[in-house]
Design brief:
Blueprint: H1 11-25, H2 29-39, H3 47-59, H4 63-76, H5 84-92, H6 102-112, H7 116-123, H8 128-135, E1 141-146, H9 152-157, E2 161-168, H10 171-180, E3 185-188, E4 201-206, H11 217-226, E5 227-240, E6 245-247, E7 253-256, H12 257-266, E8 269-282, E9 285-297, H13 306-310
Parallel strand pairs: 1-2, 1-4, 2-3, 4-5, 5-7
Antiparallel strand pairs: 5-9, 6-7, 8-9
Helix pairs in contact: 1-2, 2-3, 3-4, 4-5
């Protein structure tokens, strides 16, 4: 992953940022934003500086200034590692981004891997693997765990799989999964850029992974083309009302049941079961998830690339 440069490379600008941070910590968000706005002409190509201006302006209640700063940061950070476009979209309240930038997700989990299980399971009572395991058949055959993370899902179903592959975008998370010794293979993959090959699985799982993708059409198309006959796709998403998906304040996407059900039907799945359960807590409140199992594919995609046509 490309390294994010937090320093401006200009000692004057870095000193001003430190002073602005002090103002922000003292509750002077408007003064901090003013100082950053005066500083950035010195280093107009400083993506992290524009991001910080956006955050300070947002704290000061200057929505338009924050949106403009986040937009500038996103233009200077084309990989999206800083997550500026996500912050911009949350202020605009429009779904400009249909998925989170891969570089942002990779960096997030590379930083989070060492405390992931202690935080998610120990503090937030995460139950994704448990909820999925309950809706799966006794025998899963050849399994692909998409976004396997530290291997919690793999450990939950290892005894039911004849072969277990795990894919994740984060090297640090894969190291944690490798230490569990439950996977037959682990590989670094970006699920936003998969192409159909001759490889097939009997079961494809995605536990608490699709919350980083809004529009699921392309991925579901890939999955429909990568399941063996009689295969099952099972996953969790955070639930929302309505008929589409939306990016929430916690920087995760939520999906409606009607959106999920209609998309799976369009992809050719005829056996679709959707239940609800508590995925984890967030700020002391339960996060309700859709627990989905889909099989009975009526449509077989015969060649690589047809997932794009389906989407």
């Amino acid at each position: 992953m490309r390294k994010i440069e937090m320093s401006s490379g200009d000692i004057r600008a870095d000193r001003r940022l430190s002073f602005a941070e002090g103002l922000l910590a003292a509750g002077e968000a408007a003064a901090a934003a003013d100082l950053m706005a005066e500083t950035l002409p010195l280093v107009p190509g400083w993506a992290a500086g524009w991001l910080r201006l956006g955050e300070m302006a947002e704290r000061a209640g200057r929505k338009d200034v924050a949106i403009d700063a986040y937009q500038r940061a996103s233009e200077l950070d084309p990989d999206g590692a800083l997550g500026a476009a996500l912050r911009r979209d949350l202020l605009r309240k429009v779904p400009v981004l249909e998925r989170m930038p891969s570089a942002y997700v990779e960096g997030l989990f590379d930083d989070y891997a060492h405390r992931f299980e202690a935080s998610l399971v120990g503090k937030l009572c995460y139950r994704g693997p448990e909820l999925l395991a309950q809706v799966l058949p006794a025998q899963l055959g050849r399994v692909l765990d998409l976004g396997c993370g530290t291997g919690l899902m793999g450990a939950a179903i290892r005894g039911r799989a004849t072969h277990l592959d795990g894919w994740d975008i984060s090297d640090a998370m894969l190291r944690q999964a490798r230490a569990k010794k439950v996977y037959d293979s682990l590989d670094k993959r970006d699920i936003n850029s998969l192409a159909i090959t001759d490889q097939r699985w009997d079961t494809i799982l995605a536990a608490d992974v699709l919350i980083y993708i809004g529009a699921l059409e392309r991925l579901v198309g890939w999955i429909a083309g990568s399941l063996a006959p009689g295969g099952i796709f099972a996953f969790t998403v955070e639930a929302r009302a309505g008929d589409s998906f939306a990016l929430g304040d916690a920087h995760r996407y939520a999906h409606s049941e009607s959106y999920v059900r209609n998309l799976l039907a369009q992809a050719g799945f005829t056996g679709i079961t959707i239940t609800q359960g508590t995925l984890r807590t967030d700020r002391g409140q339960p996060v309700v998830a859709l627990v989905v199992s889909a099989g009975g594919l009526a449509l077989r995609l015969g060649r690589a690339g047809e997932e794009a046509e389906l989407a």
